[in-house]
Amino acid sequence: MGLEKKSALLEDLIEKCGGCAVVDGGFATQLEIHGAAINDPLWSAVSLIKDPELIKRVHMEYLEAGADIVVTSSYQATIPGFLSRGLSMEESESLLQKSVKLAVEARDRFWDKVSKTSGHSYNRALVAASIGSYGAYLADGSEYSGSYGDDVSLDKLKDFHRRRIQVLVEASPDLLAFETIPNKLEAQACVEVLEEENVEIPAWICFTSVDGEKAPSGESFEECLETLNKSNNICAVGINCAPPQFMDNLIRKFSKLTKKAIVVYPNSGEVWDGKAKKWLPSQCFGDAEFQMFAPKWRDLGAKLIGGCCRTTPSTIKAISRDLKRR
Questions:
Q1: Nearest to residue 235, comparing CAs of 149, 303, 156, 283?
Q2: CB 13 within 8 A of CB 68
Q3: Cβ pair 191, 228 in contact under 8 A
Q4: What pLDDT score was predicted for residue 220?
């Protein structure tokens, strides 16, 4: 199946959902709720090593909540990160592929169960392979500053992403999800690797924002989207892991800057201190607020809506209930 047909899978899903599909929520958050210890440079990806069955369980919980797209546990899973833990190249690549396999197995098991039930309101979910930013690998919070240093060039970022993309593509997810991209340079690097490798799996690229106006690097989203808008490999663009209070303005902004589908999955509004490795108190959205605002985000132009850090299956259930009138 070529790129055009695979892109049609997402378009068909959005249409089946009435114009807006639901993405799952915070993965690491739910792992921690179940007792997983993930205060680790690999973050949620450490569960690929320690407890893969728990990963599958979390995917199932989001599917049951009404997610139309489940995102794999590979956000902070990188080959350099695994190698630094003493794993071999083969083991590292196997764990990346396992992240897709676990999500696919959960999706297939869930669909096999509900598709036999008359009157259900679920859709057969798509699996998006998560690809975190270079800053996520550094685990120093730089995905929220966009400051990688003068020695990080376009070629260095392409080299960083290339093998991980190749390995994830070999595992055959439905989509690729580039997440918390903080600057134009890394977005360009991701697009160029997709094109150079002739990847035939559609991708979305999500930036984050710390001010609700620009990318963390200070670059305008008009600048950041320039390369993405020209690429057939990119099926959607948007924002993840930014406060929900920013979404109205950012969706309006993106609607003027792109014809791609717009994807938003904000965090709860809490602020992550990347150096202290803790969440800071701040104005937060609960499930009720997500349920209230999701239809507005849809009406403003978002085609894919979900949650990021500190959101849970109950958040996704609330969003899904209102968007689909379950």
A1: 303
A2: yes
A3: yes
A4: 98
Phi/psi for 127 (5° steps) reads -105, 125
For residues 147 and 130, what is the distance between their CA atoms, to the nearest angstrom? 22
Residue 100 has a pLDDT of 98
Note the pLDDT of residue 273.
67
Other CB atoms closer than 10 Å to residue 249's CB: what's the count? 13
Give the residue ranges of the chain where pLDDT is below 70: 272-283, 325-326
Give me the phi and psi of 65, to 5 degrees please. -75, -15
pLDDT digits (tens, 9 = 90+) for 121-148: 999 999 999 999 999 999 888 998 989 9
Q: Quick one: DSSP state of residue 325?
A: T
- Taking a C-beta distance cutoff of 8 angstroms, is the pair 81, 41 a contact? yes
Q: Measure the CA–CA gap between 231 and 160, rounded to whole angstroms.
A: 20
CA distance 50 to 95: 11
